[in-house]
Amino acid sequence: MNTDTNNLISHLQECITAERKHLLEDKILERTRSITIVLENIFQARNISASMRSADCFGVQDVHIIENDNKFEDDTEVSLGASKWITVNKFNQKKNNTIDAITSLKSEGYKIIACTPHKPEITLEEIDLNNKVALIFGTEVRGISAQALNMADYKMSIPMYGFTESLNISVSVSICLQHLTTQLRKGDKKWQLNDVAQNEVLLQWLMNSIKSSKQIAEAFRKTHKRK
Predict the structure, then answer these.
(1) pLDDT tens-digit profile of 81-98?
(2) CA dihedral 44, 46, 52, 55 (to 10 degrees)
(3) Rounded alpha-carbon distances, angstroms, from residue 80 to 120, 133, 168, 178
(4) What does the alpha-carbon distance between residue 157 and residue 137 come to, in Å, rounded to a whole number?
(5) Nearest C-alpha neighbor of 152 from the set 168, 169, 133
(6) Which CATH architecture has domain 32-192?
(7) How many C-beta atoms surround the C-beta of residue 128 within 10 A?
(8) 45, 72 in Cβ contact below 8 A?
(9) In this structure, what is the dihedral angle of CA atoms 32, 128, 36, 81, given to the nearest 10 degrees?
(10) Which residues pair with 112 in a beta bridge?
(11) Coil, strand, or helix at residue 24?
């Protein structure tokens, strides 16, 4: 990230307390993009919002939302402001956006893991975290689309021992992220964001949490440009 952006981060940090500054600096060290989640065509906003909240809680920076038939609106009473701290990537430009989302993630080196109770190839415990992984969760009624299942590298299930076939989507997300991020932190793989990504996310956090941040940043850039 360039010097101008670093200077902007330093300038915005002057607008927050020292305690807040240290908190953001501590939290950025716990963020990862080694694991991400993809929510395909979910129609209940509370399920997406709860999943976003889980992503933030477990230090997963990115959430990908595929909007084919259903448009997402954050349920803030459920997400509790998680959208300020995570990076939400929406795929909604076409009638069917699943191909674009999965193709994009594969180009970034992610293994695509389709979460489904039907004919799974691996269980949650068998996911290889030596690779970056993107977990796809499907709509409440139909589950993951056939298209996503066909493009996935693996089909995965959460082991269950009762009569009910599946868990609520947001519960599934939370269980998967808790398990995988715990395993990731126990391993030898470098999972933290690199320096450029840390600055990118830190700037996002500052912009999202400081009142009138856009005006402050604009005034700083104008002044800095004249020097």
Answers:
(1) 899 999 999 999 887 899
(2) -100
(3) 33, 26, 19, 19
(4) 11
(5) 133
(6) 3-Layer(aba) Sandwich (3.40)
(7) 10
(8) yes
(9) -60
(10) 134
(11) helix
Report residue 213: phi and psi, to 5°: -60, -35
pLDDT at 1 over 60: no
Q: Which two tokens stand for residue 193?
A: 């964001």
Chain-centroid distance, C-alpha 197: 14
**What digits encode the pLDDT tens for the residues 184-227?**
999 999 999 999 999 999 999 999 999 999 999 999 888 877 55
Average model confidence (pLDDT) for the chain?
A: 92
Q: At what angle do helices 169-186 and 45-57 cross, to 10 degrees?
A: 10
Q: Domain limits of the chain?
A: 32-192, 193-227
Residue 33: name the closest of 147, 114, 133 by CA. 133
Which residues have a Cβ under 8 Å from the Cβ of 54 and sit 6 or more positions away?
60, 170, 173, 174, 177, 178
Q: Which two tokens stand for residue 17?
A: 């307390």
Contact yes or no for 55/86 (Cβ under 8 A): yes
DSSP states along 178-201: HHHHHHHHHSSS--B--HHHHHHH
pLDDT of residue 222: 83
pTM of the model: 0.92
Q: Identify the three-state secondary structure at position 47.
A: helix
